[in-house]
Design a protein that fits this description.
With about 500 residues, the protein is an alpha/beta fold. The protein has 2 domains: about 160 residues, 3-Layer(aba) Sandwich (Rossmann fold), CATH 3.40.50; about 260 residues, pyruvate-formate lyase- activating enzyme (Alpha-Beta Horseshoe), CATH 3.80.30. The strands form 3 sheets. A 7-stranded mixed β-sheet has the order 2-1-3-4-5-6-7, with helices on both faces. The protein has a 6-stranded parallel β-sheet with strand order 8-11-12-13-14-15. Helix 11 packs parallel to helix 12, helix 17 packs parallel to helix 19 and helix 20 runs antiparallel to helix 21.
């Protein structure tokens, strides 16, 4: 291994205020860039000297990040454009573009690469608009490896590059199948996990908000078999299926995070973790044996949890699965079917939520306003249903069309107005522009969402539940969060 730095991987910062407005002060999470650490582990395994600059965690602005990047004098600099989920990645592209230009202003000849969700969704447009030299389409691991090896560009899978004033590209690399074999190493040591820079979702730590900074995020699988019209995940993976790391590999990561770094809260960012019991139950059994007392959150679907027994859910609770992110999305099965989200009824949702609560697991329940077919009455019905279920924390979203999703393609075909800037895709941002429906304007959808947020979180029944379950500190935190009023351009703020 050379003593010089072969590649610097950057997680961009300087966008928190744009993306979250005043919620960025204390109410948004600061996620560890798992994909950057996974990429670093893969490249390091092949003998290359790599490092990570997590500008987001270190709270560096664009100019500070550019200066730090150039000073490292790496052979290649790669901006890793990931935000744990494909649908939340696009808003940081404004910061990515600014960073690329700032680096090129300081070192015009320095090779600059983009990889990640958004570049894979729009590779040609990204190459035309951003001041980068190369782009990795797809998962990116073998693309970056080929660059470091010095392979001829025409032989590097997934590579986009500039040549003779034009753009060239190769077909993307096949997805890695043996995750635990090829992607077995995560460079946790290159992240400031012990420094208090990362911060869990506030709802995950309502029971003890003082521990929010003992936090990490982890994938144990990649991909999703479903195709919800509002999701962009398949633009990167190019297929509808799940690939798994082994339960043994997953436990190595839990062991490292709990023992070496003192992590207490872990967000499992698998697109759908509660899916295959042959994967998640051995992990749960091992967690029970270790008695780490971790606080874990995982994604789940209504129709999948409906097939799980109460005893199984109770065992997951024993293992530390205190939170599910449950994609309820909407109260009307007809609207859900149009979004390719299944068509389960209120009765099914009530049964599933009741069973989860009976097992002692709390919910961050996702709801969406402005899905195709939505109108004022159906949005109000969804809010009423959310209040009836009274989950510990709802996430209220407006429907948007992230690049790579079916809704994005449909919006382009129909000429539906889309945000003029990438930060316009940020749900809590000032410039946010959701999709309209056949019955509602974008402004009407957004106004309802913001009103619904405050109606739910100031509801006396909800506040009483929070105080009874989590205590006075949690109640005060929720009230503080509710006091933050987002400003919106399309609403005339």
């Amino acid at each position: 291994m050379s003593a010089s730095l072969d590649m610097l991987l950057i997680n961009v910062g300087g966008t928190k205020r744009q993306v979250y407005q005043d919620l960025s002060r204390d109410y948004s999470a600061v996620e560890p860039p798992f994909w950057a650490a996974l990429t670093a582990g893969f490249l390091r395994k092949h003998g290359y000297h790599v490092d990570i600059l997590d500008a987001n965690a270190l709270n560096l602005d664009i100019e500070e990040t550019a200066s730090a990047a150039v000073s490292r004098n790496a052979k290649f600099t790669t901006v890793v454009v990931y935000s744990q989920q494909a649908n939340t990645c696009t808003p940081i592209m404004d910061g990515v573009g600014q960073l690329c230009r700032a680096i090129k202003q300081r070192a015009g000849d320095h090779p600059l690469i983009l990889t990640g969700w958004h570049p894979s969704c729009l590779p040609e447009r990204t190459m035309r608009e951003e001041a980068c030299d190369m782009l990795a389409e797809g998962e990116g691991f073998h693309t970056l490896l080929g660059i470091l090896r010095g392979d001829e560009y025409r032989n590097i899978p997934g590579l986009w590059w500039r040549e003779n004033g034009g753009l060239r590209n190769n077909p993307r690399a096949p997805n890695i199948e043996d995750l635990a074999g090829e992607l077995d190493q995560i460079a946790w040591d290159l992240l400031p996990l012990n420094s208090g820079h990362y911060r869990a979702f506030n709802w995950m730590t309502l029971g003890d908000l003082s521990t929010r900074k003992h936090y990490a995020a982890l994938f144990t699988s990649l991909g999703c078999p479903y195709r919800c019209s509002f999701c962009a995940i398949h633009a990167t993976f190019g297929e509808r299926r799940i690939r798994y790391w082994s339960p043994e590999w997953a436990m190595e990561q839990f062991d490292t995070l709990a023992r070496r770094y003192g992590v207490r809260h872990i967000n499992l960012v698998d697109e759908i973790y509660i899916f295959n019991p042959r994967h998640y139950m051995p992990i749960a059994e091992a967690l029970v044996e270790r008695e780490y007392q971790l606080n874990i959150c995982a994604f789940a679907r209504v129709d999948r949890v409906d097939k799980i027994s109460l005893d199984e859910l109770r065992f997951l609770k024993r293992a530390g699965f205190n939170w599910f992110k449950l994609g309820i999305e909407h109260a009307d099965p007809r609207v859900l079917k149009r979004a390719h989200k299944g068509g389960y009824t209120k009765e099914v949702i009530r049964r599933v939520v009741g069973k989860i609560h009976e097992a002692g697991i709390d919910l961050c329940a996702n709801y969406m306003f402005g899905l195709p077919g939505d109108n004022g009455e159906t949005m109000q019905d969804t809010l009423n249903f959310a209040m009836e279920l009274n989950c510990a924390f709802p996430s209220f979203f407006c429907t948007m069309a992230p690049p790579g999703s079916d809704l994005y393609k449909e919006a382009l075909e129909k000429g539906t107005p889309l945000p003029e800037t990438w930060v316009g895709y940020a749900q809590q941002g000032y410039d946010f522009l959701p999709l309209p429906t056949e019955h509602l304007t974008a402004a009407e959808v957004l106004a309802f969402r913001d009103w619904a947020f405050h109606a739910y979180f100031t509801n006396p029944r909800y506040l009483h539940m929070i105080e009874q379950k989590f205590g006075k500190e949690a109640l005060d935190h929720i009230r503080g969060m509710t006091s933050v009023r987002l400003k919106r351009r399309i609403l005339g703020d």
